[in-house]
Design brief:
By secondary structure, the protein is an alpha+beta fold. About 55% of the residues lie in helices and about 10% in strands.
């Protein structure tokens, strides 16, 4: 009886489908979708992850749109292992060994268009960060390396010093309360001041002329507002899986920012292009800045614009986030604050740093071991860049070792990076108190058993905050000069306290970058 019923149902279904072709199309599409999802589920079934990630992207879309994706990624790798599943065809890892393997200089892995095309400024146009073709990326990177390293920019450090002085002067003249004063303080938004500084630096060393935000104490070109708007839109596009729309001819360009826009990201692009065009009117030998170096090494036209604009945005935003993070953790930990400030005072008294208002040199600042430990520890416990950096497993798959176990990654699988898991939550590398801000953890006795190996592993893992191998951050040199100088000079000249310790700032993760605001502090001038 049951076989007759099944046969009857089959005949009825075939009759309906044959009479209504549209139903046949819908039926075929449904079957194709279900089979595809089952295949995706099955090929990665040996990787654990949150419920539904085996057959749906919903979990991942939710965490991206929440503005806290980095914390969710950290939770996943902490609960399900150093390699876990976050979507039907996407894994994530907190293993520094695996991530080093994936990002090696000659790695067969490639960047995923699914993530990186969402980070484009203009539809169909790539920069060194968004380029997913390995050969094109390597060729472009080679043209830019000298400019970022400072080898062809002898005024790099003096330019940074100029704006560090401006930052100190702005705080002293407008916000700092004299040491002996009992007057009413004027709260300062440290979040905006840090980005004014980094925007002035990167526009100065990149274009030869600073935007002037510190002098005006304002976002003179609406870069900060436009950047936040642009990142928010990109994050929504990525979270909803709509990046493919940007690659559709005509449609992608139509919905992308236009230089004719009177506000927002389009206006920002137009202003940047104008600044670059004005800079190109001068000879590259007249001033040796980053743009000059790019031109000398073969960048021109729209390629030059894309890289220079990327440099201004990424170079300012990530460094500003680093400075805010370091200052927040210092202000939140009085013992560390006092220890670092005493170390800085000793350096000043010993003549390591020139008398104020002159700025400490990069070499001397890097020689202060406690300052170095504070910088490393703050960027470890709260990485300033938490992009997922999705990679594509090469065709044929890859056999790897994770935590001593043999693991096979099927070809075409996406695999990303859990910054929170690799750095803040990594007890195996940093100890049981890995979530605690404790700069002293970096003072490892290399003479004790296993000490040298443990420190080497800590340093290698920590350095991955700036990427690794083929995709190592080009701007690290400039960023670290800025960071060490500014933290030294701020604590040398002032005392800072959070105005609202219960809510020290507003913060949201968009595309792996932090939008940070309302970081209000009270400033007292040190005598």
């Amino acid at each position: 009886m049951s076989s007759q019923l099944v046969s009857s149902i089959d005949e009825t279904l075939l009759s309906i489908l044959s009479q209504h072709p549209l139903y046949l199309v819908v039926f075929a599409a449904t079957v194709f979708f279900i089979v595809g999802r089952l295949r995706q589920y099955w090929r990665l079934k040996h990787f654990d992850g949150p419920f539904s990630t085996g057959f749906s992207w919903l979990w991942h879309s939710n965490v991206v749109l929440s503005g806290n994706a980095h914390k969710h990624y950290g939770y996943v790798t902490e609960k399900y292992g150093t390699i876990a599943r976050v979507a039907p065809n996407h894994l994530i890892t907190s293993s520094s060994e695996l991530w080093a393997h994936i990002n090696a200089v000659r790695s067969p892995y490639s960047r995923s268009q699914w993530y990186y095309h969402c980070a484009r400024f203009e539809a169909g146009k790539d920069n060194v960060f968004t380029e997913c073709d390995n050969d094109k990326h390597d060729a472009r990177r080679k043209k830019m390396a000298s400019g970022y390293s400072g080898k062809e920019n002898p005024t790099l450090e003096p330019s940074i010093d100029t704006h560090a002085k401006e930052l100190v002067h702005l705080i002293r003249s407008k916000y700092a309360t004299p040491a002996a004063s009992v007057g009413v303080s004027k709260p300062m938004n440290m979040a905006s001041k840090m980005q004014y500084f980094t925007l002035d630096v990167i526009s100065h060393v990149g274009l030869g002329q600073a935007f002037g935000d510190l002098k005006e104490d304002a976002d003179t070109n609406d870069y900060l507002k436009s950047l936040e708007e642009g990142l928010t839109i990109s994050n929504i596009t990525w979270g909803l899986g709509l990046s493919w729309i940007l690659d559709v001819p005509f449609l992608g360009k139509a919905i992308s920012p236009s230089e004719k826009d009177e506000r927002g990201f389009g206006k920002m692009i137009a202003h940047a292009r104008k600044s670059i065009e004005q800079r190109l009117l001068k000879s590259t030998s007249e001033r040796s800045d980053m743009l000059s170096s790019f031109v000398r090494h073969g960048l021109s036209g729209d390629e030059l614009f894309q890289e220079t604009f990327e440099q201004i945005l990424a170079g300012s935003d990530t460094t500003a986030a680093s400075l805010r993070i370091i200052m927040l953790y210092l202000m939140s930990h009085p013992r560390v604050y006092a220890t670092l400030q005493a170390d800085i005072d000793r350096a000043v008294k010993a003549g390591v740093a020139p008398a104020s208002p002159e700025i400490i040199s990069d070499i001397e600042a890097r020689g202060l071991v406690y300052l170095g430990a504070v910088v490393r520890e703050a960027l470890r416990v709260h990485p300033p860049v938490v992009n997922i950096f999705s990679r594509v497993v090469p065709k044929g798959g890859d056999a790897v070792k994770v935590d001593g176990q043999d693991v096979f990654l099927p070809g075409g699988t996406l695999i990303g990076y859990s910054a929170w898991g690799m750095h803040r939550n990594n007890k195996a590398v940093y100890g049981e108190d890995s979530h605690v801000f404790r700069p002293e953890r970096w003072f490892v006795d290399e003479n004790e058993s296993g000490g040298a190996e443990r420190l080497a592993q800590m340093l290698k893992t920590n350095d991955m905050i700036f990427g690794y191998g083929r995709w190592h951050c080009l701007g690290k040199v400039v960023a670290m000069i800025e960071i060490h100088k500014v933290i030294f000079e701020l604590l040398r000249n002032f005392d800072f306290a959070l105005t609202s310790p219960d809510k020290p700032w507003t913060i949201s993760n968009a595309m792996g970058l932090f939008a940070i605001g309302d970081m209000w502090v009270e400033v007292t001038e040190r005598s």
